[in-house]
């Protein structure tokens, strides 16, 4: 990031476009999130902007082409449209925008996107880093299931994240919607933080992240933090309920965490939260939460329509290989969680997995067409026994709402179960 190269901890945002098209409270939200707002480029020795935020009344192709026709060294440009036009972001992205949103704009989400776009250009490239992420997640899942106490799981989480993302601060705060207080279960600097409690009234961003289930930026009041540094509040969801939040601060001089880094943090935190939840009541079966799957399908449908993307929904049935006796709810629950863990190891960070019905797993594979989903099932079949699957890919002429996807994928699974060789059904 250019601003960080100049020794500035706060990312610099240049606002341009139509000032009258800016959402109400935009400048205040950006400043509160830790950004420095600058005007037109100044003297040669002044650090340039780290991102350009352009506000427009509507998606005029000629205006967009003029704005987005820029040299490679141009910082990422994010475009906001005042009009409620679902096609406008796709137009801007096709012309070269780094990101785009149409009204109504959720300002905390915008701040998180700005941080992500700035940091994405500094990610270690490609496969080596991604492979390291997968190995880190796989190792942590094994560690979380190895009989550690809840405090030990939380401490392992913050230490692993601190090393992987080179964080200056990381802590796991247990809190629930409607609670007035949060408990710091583990802190990167201090180890176990079981006696540290946070009054949530002093940290409205934490309460908002729990309520909205979105990552937010908040001012950093941790001892030793600079006067203008900010932290990312990342809510941790398990089976459609908020288990707590991660408080993350990037290393000194960095603007924030990228979307890929937040994806890693979220995956590790979910594994930890599941282990913590299991530690509270290991014998109780975990009931799948259809609401979580339904919400994810809504999000993927909206994203696919907005950006002309594809995704697949897979319904998987596999032999868990367990030996629990019939009627032993605790043994069945443990077998189910073991199966979820084994399947999750084959997933990418953006993928989603949830229990479905009595014995199936539902998987959402973003930006994956039917052929890619079929290849994934075939690969998984080499590691699991008795696999049968149903696949439905979007776009699909019969899909307008999530219930359409679920009906099609259930029918596809029935066709897969009726086969004797491939055992994979694909919705026509």
What report would you give on this structure?
- β11 (230-238) and β12 (241-249) form a beta hairpin.
- The protein is built from 13 helices and 17 strands.
- The longest helix has 22 residues, at 259-280.
- α6 runs antiparallel to α7, α6 packs parallel to α9 (259-280) and α7 packs antiparallel against α9.
- With 428 residues, it is α/β, with parallel strands linked by helices.
- The strands form three sheets. Strands 6, 7, 8, 9, 10, 11 and 12 form a seven-stranded antiparallel β-sheet that branches. The chain has a five-stranded parallel β-sheet with strand order 2-1-3-4-5, sandwiched between helices.
- It starts with a helix and ends with a strand.
Shape: globular
- Please tell me how large the radius of gyration is: 23 Å
H/E element string?
A: HEHEEHEHEHHHEEEEHEEEHHEHEEHEHE
Q: How many helix segments?
A: 13
Low-confidence stretches: 1-9, 279-289
Beta-strand segment tally = 17
Query: What's the mean pLDDT score?
Result: 76
Structure class:
alpha/beta
Percent in strands: 15-25%
Helical residue percent band? 25-40%
Biggest sheet overview: 7 strands, antiparallel
| Distance between the first and last residues' Cα | 46 Å
Quick recap of the structure?
By secondary structure, the protein is an alpha/beta fold. It has 13 helices and 17 strands.
């Amino acid at each position: 990031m250019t601003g960080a190269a100049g020794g500035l901890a706060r990312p610099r945002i240049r606002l341009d476009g139509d000032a009258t098209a800016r959402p109400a409270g935009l400048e205040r939200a950006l400043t509160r999130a830790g950004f420095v707002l600058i005007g037109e480029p100044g003297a040669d020795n002044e650090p340039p902007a780290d991102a350009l935020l352009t506000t427009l009344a509507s998606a005029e192709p000629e205006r967009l082409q003029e704005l987005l026709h820029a040299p490679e060294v141009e910082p990422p440009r994010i475009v906001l449209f005042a009009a409620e036009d679902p096609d406008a972001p796709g137009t801007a992205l096709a012309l070269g925008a780094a990101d785009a949103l149409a009204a109504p704009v959720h300002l905390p989400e915008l701040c998180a996107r700005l941080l992500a776009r700035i940091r994405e250009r500094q990610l270690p490239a490609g496969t080596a880093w991604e492979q390291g992420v997968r190995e880190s997640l796989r190792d942590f899942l094994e560690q979380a299931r190895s009989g550690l106490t809840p405090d030990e799981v939380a401490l392992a989480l913050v230490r692993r994240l601190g090393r992987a993302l080179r964080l200056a601060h990381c802590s796991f705060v247990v809190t629930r919607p409607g609670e007035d207080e949060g408990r710091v279960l583990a802190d990167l600097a201090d180890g176990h933080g079981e006696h540290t409690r946070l009054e949530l009234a002093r940290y409205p961003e934490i309460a908002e992240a729990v309520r909205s289930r979105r990552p937010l930026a908040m001012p950093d009041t941790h001892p030793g933090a600079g006067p203008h540094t900010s932290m990312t509040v990342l809510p941790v969801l398990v089976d459609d309920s908020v288990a707590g939040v991660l408080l993350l601060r990037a290393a000194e001089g960095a603007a924030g965490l990228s979307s890929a880094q937040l994806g890693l943090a979220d995956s590790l935190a979910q594994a930890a939260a599941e282990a913590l939840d299991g530690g509270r009541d290991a014998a109780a079966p975990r009931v799948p939460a259809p609401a979580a799957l339904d919400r994810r399908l809504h999000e993927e449908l909206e994203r696919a329509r907005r950006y002309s993307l594809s995704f697949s929904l897979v319904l998987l049935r596999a032999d868990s290989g367990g030996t629990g006796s019939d009627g032993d709810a605790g043994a069945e629950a443990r077998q189910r969680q073991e199966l979820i863990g084994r399947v999750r190891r084959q997933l990418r960070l953006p993928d989603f997995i949830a229990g479905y019905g009595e014995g199936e797993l539902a998987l959402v594979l973003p930006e994956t067409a039917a052929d890619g989903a079929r290849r994934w099932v075939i690969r998984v079949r080499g590691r699991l026994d008795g696999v049968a699957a149903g696949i439905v890919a979007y776009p699909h002429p019969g899909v307008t709402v999530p219930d359409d996807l679920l009906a099609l994928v259930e029918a596809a699974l029935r066709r897969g179960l009726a086969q004797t060789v491939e055992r994979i059904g694909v919705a026509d």
